């Protein structure tokens, strides 16, 4: 997500600018002086900085020069006081993108920030590698809730080590994103990151995928095959849904953890590897141990450092920033300009249970954007979320007629999107085709 650092020692100005930038869909970080600015830049690497001239421990114009030397890709907009043009001119010479006089119409700030962000992206694109590294950096993990900040802080600390990590949490909470970020911030970041879902294969196929096999070791093994551990040598392997791994195969994985070697299917000599293992599960592995489904010794080797990812319903203050991130993502993907979301739309998002967590929220935003006009409204949400929100409104003395009107409007928009294709509309609405025909007749919908 595009991010901005606001540098000002006046709390009210920081609060105002932060809110403006957040409403534009940017992620915002704050600093109050030169020292905290350099810490924030190192921690978050934003693309744009809005910097005041007068800071408690230095001058903003000089700070511009320092920031550009350390972070050439960063674009800096200086905030000058009382039309102090000489400061602005000197800032440009020091590498600032532009300067804005404090007290000017705030609407002037947004276009300047937008242009600076575009330039910053060009700067980053011209660097050698690392769009991929940035994609999986900790800065891309969205969330300002305390529980999420604590989770990210733990992951950042363990990333610099080489210990095994066990990520726990419900499906859809972003465990692979965390695994990628840990790898990209580790000493192994220049080597391979290999991910495999242990629940996607049978025992025999999973063994072959992970450890490889020799030609002729079983029917269909026409040639030698490298396993994923060999592919990930000197890098990181991510074993998702580790709780689904067959009990017999767990012993072989334990040997890798203990000795750094394993024997391929059909081979007689061991293969040595140097791989960091990050695993993840949505199961309670301690209960699986009690039930005899998971090895206790393997559990303790995998969970040297354990991180629990909180479900979305426990971090609802993060829903808005996640939603805005997905809106920007799908605006590009769908080639559709959407002017944000209405307050009712956001309220409904925050009221939903999100049993599918971030993955479900992402899918709902994408679906809503497909059928929306210029702005995401309550009627663009799936009917079950609308109904849930409407039940709350009804309890506050809203008439039930609004629910029917809302449903009619939503069905009409979906039918317009599918150009009258009722089979496709029923699939998108997640209702039976017969039910759709009945509601079309009931509401008198015509296209």
Automatic annotation (TrEMBL):
InterPro entries named in the record: AAA+_ATPase, AAA_lid_NorR, CheY-like_superfamily, Homeodomain-like_sf, HTH_Fis, P-loop_NTPase, Sig_transdc_resp-reg_receiver, Sigma_54_int
Any single Pfam family the record assigns to this protein: HTH_8
Record has DNA damage as a keyword: no
Keywords per UniProt: ATP-binding, Nucleotide-binding, Phosphoprotein, Transcription, Transcription regulation
SUPFAM superfamilies, alphabetized: CheY-like, Homeodomain-like, P-loop containing nucleoside triphosphate hydrolases
Domain Sigma-54 factor interaction: 141-370
Keyword Signal annotated: no
GO BP term, pick one: phosphorelay signal transduction system
MF terms in GO: ATP binding; sequence-specific DNA binding
CDD domains referenced in this protein's UniProt entry, alphabetically: AAA (cd00009)
Protein name, as recorded: Sigma-54-dependent Fis family transcriptional regulator
Organism for this UniProt entry: Phocaeicola massiliensis B84634 = Timone 84634 = DSM 17679 = JCM 13223
